[in-house]
Amino acid sequence: MSTVLPLHEPLPRAQAPRPGTPDVQKLATRLRHQVGRAIADFGMIEDGDKVMVCLSGGKDSYTLLDILLQLQKKAPVSFSITAVNLDQKQPGFPEHILPAYLASLGVDFHIIEQDTYSVVSRVIPEGKTMCSLCSRLRRGALYTYAEANGFTKIALGHHRDDLVATFFLNLFFHAKLSGMPPKLRSDDGKHVVIRPLAYAAEDDIAAYAQAKAFPIIPCNLCGSQENLQRKQVGLMMRQWERDTPGRIETIARALGDIRPSQLSDPKLFDFLGLGAGTAAATAVARPAWHDDPPAQAS
Ligand code: SF4
After folding, report:
1. I need a labelling partner for 242 at 20 to 30 A (CA). Which of 35, 97, 111, 120 fits?
2. Alpha helix (H) ranges present in the chain?
3. pLDDT tens, 171-227?
4. Is residue 238 one of the residues assigned to a domain?
5. For residues 68 and 81, is the Cβ–Cβ distance under 8 A?
6. For the segment 94-151, what is each residue's pLDDT rounded down to a tens digit?
7. Distance from the CA of 113 to the center of ligand 1, in angstroms?
């Protein structure tokens, strides 16, 4: 049976920074701790796993790969890492950057070449955001590659702030209390997707990426704009964090501390059974309490 063992190391004790100690060390320790804790809490990586790290060329996926490679050296389980990038053939994509960087690390890697850009720009009318279809096609190509090559886990670079933003997008625009989980099985049941940066703050990742001078490839080469709703939620979160520092962390912690009996979903908590009489009495009494909703005008 495979084992899941904690990979995280204790947080460093608070101490006065030694002159000349680069902040990057502190950030790296914090990120390793958070990633290790997420891996342990959600059983993300097991002995013998083949982990495919999806690398877009953005700060998040560079940081994910970097921290996983550090953890791999002292992890209590043995797992392999392969970095995989999808070259979507956006105009101006600097295709030499990632191979050069990955070769310099000595990490196993593969670049998939698939022209999803032409598909997206053909299907989406000019001026509309292309990101949603582009991401779906990217996901499809990466999952297909993972299946063909026997990867047991697909690691994505989403972080704490992405998890919180998705929660608010679903809340505000889809009337759902639902988010982006740190670990999930893909819809087709074939893949386990993990998000080891689930506890890491975007600001820390940005600072780390800058300090490490990762060769960032911007995700706006295609000229597409971010979805307006996501933009609104991002602005709201940044404003909250400015007004009340620590609020995003509080919300992120709340996502892991859910009390179904304090919400209103009878599928998650047996409200009907609460203080009810016999099952027969409940079944008789219930239908009388509401009319059927009016039929929709066609
Ligand atoms: S900005 Fe362009 S490349 Fe990036 S996700 Fe959106 S459509 Fe795709």
Report:
1. 35
2. 23-42, 59-74, 97-105, 116-123, 131-148, 160-174, 202-212, 228-243, 247-254, 279-285
3. 999 999 999 999 999 988 999 999 999 999 999 999 999 999 999 998 776 777 778
4. no
5. yes
6. 999 999 999 999 999 999 999 999 999 898 888 788 888 988 999 999 999 999 999 9
7. 16
Phi, psi of 213 (to 5 degrees): 55, 45
Count of structural domains, the chain: 1
Please say whether the beta carbons of 4 and 40 come within 8 A. yes
Q: Which atom, in ligand 1's list, is nearest to the CA of 222?
A: 2
From CA 227, how far away is CA 165, in angstroms rounded?
12
Q: Tokens for 40?
A: 């342990």
- Residue 243 forms part of a structural domain: no
Q: Is 34 in the pocket of ligand 1 (CB under 6 A)?
A: no
Q: What is the pTM of this model?
A: 0.87
**How far is the C-alpha of 212 from the C-alpha of 5, rounded, in Å?**
28
Question: Which structure tokens are listed for 76?
Answer: 């209590």
